[in-house]
Specification:
Helix content is 20%, strand content 32%. The chain is globular and about 55 Å long. The relative contact order is 0.18.
Length: 228
C-alpha cells in the first residue's frame, strides 16, 4: 500500500511488519542488553544482496533512543537541542491528524539517537579481506561517522572525496565484550574522539559490529544479548 502527501490516521503501523521480519531472520541478531538508558526504536533497518545462487548477504541495523535521565523520560534534560522549526514539526499536530504510531515515532526525534548502533551482518561466502572483523568494524564506524558527525568532522554537504576523517584498521586493538553474560574475544576502536566501536565474531558467516557516540558511554552498559 502506498500513501501520497499525508499519512491517513488509520494507516497500519509499519513497526509490526518490521518486527515480524526481524523475528524471521535466519541467523542470530544481537542488541544492547536492555537497560534504563536506551529504548530500541520501533523500526529496524535491513539490507541484503543477492546473486544467481540466491541470497549473498544480509544485515540488521538497530537504533536506540538515549535517555540522559533514565528514571524520568519526561524530564526536559533528556531532549536534544532543536531549532524551533524542527520542534514544531515534531510536536504540532497537522489539521488532518496523524496515526498514533506516527506521533510516537516522531517524538523519538526529540531525543538523542544511537543511530544504527548495533549491526549484525551475515555473508553466505565471506571474503577473507572484505568481510574480515577489522574491515567490517572500520566500515560500520565510518558509516556512522559520515552520517552522524558530518558537522563535527567538517564533511561538506553532498558527495565528497575527502577521506581524512575516516578511521583506519591501524586504530584497531584487542578487546573483550560481554555477550549473553559471557566474555567474548573482540577487537575495538577506542581512539576516535566521536565514537567507540567494537566487534565480535558470532560464527563463520556472522559478525556483530557496534558503534556508539563517545558522549553516550557513561550512560551505557556495553554488553550485548541475543535478540532473535
Amino acid at each position: 500500500m502506498e500513501y501520497g502527501g499525508t499519512v491517513p490516521t488509520d494507516a497500519p503501523d509499519p513497526s509490526i511488519a518490521s518486527e515480524a521480519r526481524l523475528r524471521s531472520i535466519p541467523f542470530p541478531v544481537f542488541e544492547l542488553r536492555p537497560q534504563p538508558a536506551v529504548t530500541r526504536t520501533p523500526i529496524t533497518g535491513f539490507a541484503e544482496g543477492s546473486g544467481p545462487a540466491g541470497l549473498t548477504d544480509m544485515s540488521v541495523h538497530l537504533s536506540y533512543a538515549l535517555w540522559r535521565v533514565p528514571e524520568d523520560h519526561g524530564d526536559p534534560r533528556n531532549e536534544r537541542e532543536l531549532d524551533e522549526r524542527t520542534r514544531r514539526s515534531i510536536e504540532e499536530e497537522p489539521p488532518w491528524g496523524r496515526p498514533p504510531w506516527l506521533i510516537e515515532q516522531a517524538r523519538l526525534h526529540l531525543y538523542p539517537m544511537l543511530w544504527e548502533a548495533t549491526r549484525t551482518a551475515w555473508h553466505a561466502s565471506p571474503d577473507a579481506e572484505r568481510h574480515s572483523l577489522s574491515q567490517q568494524l572500520v566500515d560500520h564506524t565510518n558509516h556512522v561517522l559520515r552520517n552522524s558527525f558530518r558537522e563535527q568532522l567538517g564533511i561538506p554537504a553532498g558527495p565528497t572525496r575527502t577521506t581524512e576523517w575516516r578511521v583506519k584498521p591501524t586504530a584497531i586493538a584487542e578487546a573483550s565484550l560481554e555477550v549473553d553474560g559471557e566474555h567474548r574475544s573482540a577487537i575495538h576502536i577506542d581512539t576516535d574522539p566521536f565514537v567507540y566501536a567494537v566487534v565480535f565474531r558470532v560464527d563463520e558467516h556472522t559478525v556483530s559490529t557496534n558503534v556508539f557516540p563517545r558522549d553516550s558511554l557513561p550512560l551505557l552498559n556495553l554488553s550485548l544479548t541475543t535478540l532473535v
